[in-house]
Amino acid sequence: MSAPQIIPASSATLGEGMQIRRALPTQHRRMVGAWCFLDHFGPVDVAKTRGLRVGPHPHIGLQTVTWLLKGELLHRDSLGNAQAIEPGALNLMTAGRGISHSEESPERRSAEIHGVQLWIALPDTARHLPPAFAHHPSVPLLRPNGLRVSVLVGELLGERSPAQVHSPLVGASIHVPAGSMATIPVQRAFEHGAIVTYGRVEVAGQRFISGSMLYLAPGRTGLPIVAGAGDAGLILLGGLPMAEEVLMWWNFVARGKDELTQASRDWNEGADYLGDVKGYDGPRLVAPLPPWSL
Questions:
Q1: Which residue from 149, 190, 150 is spatially nearest to 169, judged by alpha carbons?
Q2: For 276-291, b where at least 16 C-beta lie within 10 A, e where not — what string?
Q3: What is the spatial distance between Cα 237 and Cα 173, in angstroms, rounded to a whole number?
Q4: What is the rounded CA–CA span in Å between residue 207 and residue 260?
């Protein structure tokens, strides 16, 4: 069995200046199963600012998963959805062949925001499906050995999330109380990745804190979790290693460079299939052209 690998997250800017930690993709690892993007934002004070604001932008070939630990966000998309989300609820947007959306802190909001946004690369059999959006007010919540486990995607501990995905995957948010110990059963064929959202925790014998990702290759049937002196939080992701070659550029997931270039140009030229977001009080984002197209 391969030893766990600690991979530093990179720093990035989300929307109008919010600094975040990006655990996927990095130069050391591009994907975990079909999970191809993991942004961890906050906790950050939004009481005296405009909060988190990401103007209208497009996606193809992926699903977005939004999960909050604190605060609120308002999702708008080109299908006409305007959906607020708060802790305990899950937003799942399926881009398929093309969609656009925006995200913003609502006018009435908590003082802090803290959460993650995840992307799932759609397999070739699903990446040209019509776009869709689903809001799940709750997900399964389990309490093994004192832990609090929210099953965001897939199946864990015998419970299945209502989120509809198209690959063998698991995603969970885990609260680890101070002094607790537990082993989470996992599928041997899956590779796994984990980030700490708050506190300090040990997983599979490795201690790590926010700002890095723990990668675990296939071959494990359980993940021992040991808390530190205080409470801690984890995001756990897993899935079968993706057999298809996936390419990413900006907000697009595709299979070839020409497809990525065309999607960037289509958005900038206002192509109908990427849609239009109504109600956001700011400009839409401009797609940067990939370097190979210049």
A1: 190
A2: ebeebeeebbebeebe
A3: 9
A4: 38
Maximum distance among all alpha carbons in the chain?
Answer: 55
Condensed to tens digits (0 to 9), the pLDDT of residues 238-292 reads 999 999 999 999 999 999 999 999 999 999 999 999 999 999 999 999 999 999 9
Q: What is the pLDDT of residues 59-103, one digit of tens each?
A: 999 999 999 999 999 999 999 999 999 999 999 999 999 999 999
CA separation (Å) from 216 to 100, 219, 265?
33, 9, 38
Q: Where are the domains of the chain?
A: 5-239
In three-state form (DSSP H/G/I as H, E/B as E, the rest C), the secondary structure along 122-145 is CCCCCCCCCCEEEEECCCCEECHH
Q: Which residue has the tokens 């698991």?
A: 170
| Calpha distance 239→33 (Å, rounded) | 4
Tell me the CATH architecture of domain 5-239: Sandwich (2.60)
Q: Which residue has the tokens 């723990």?
A: 214
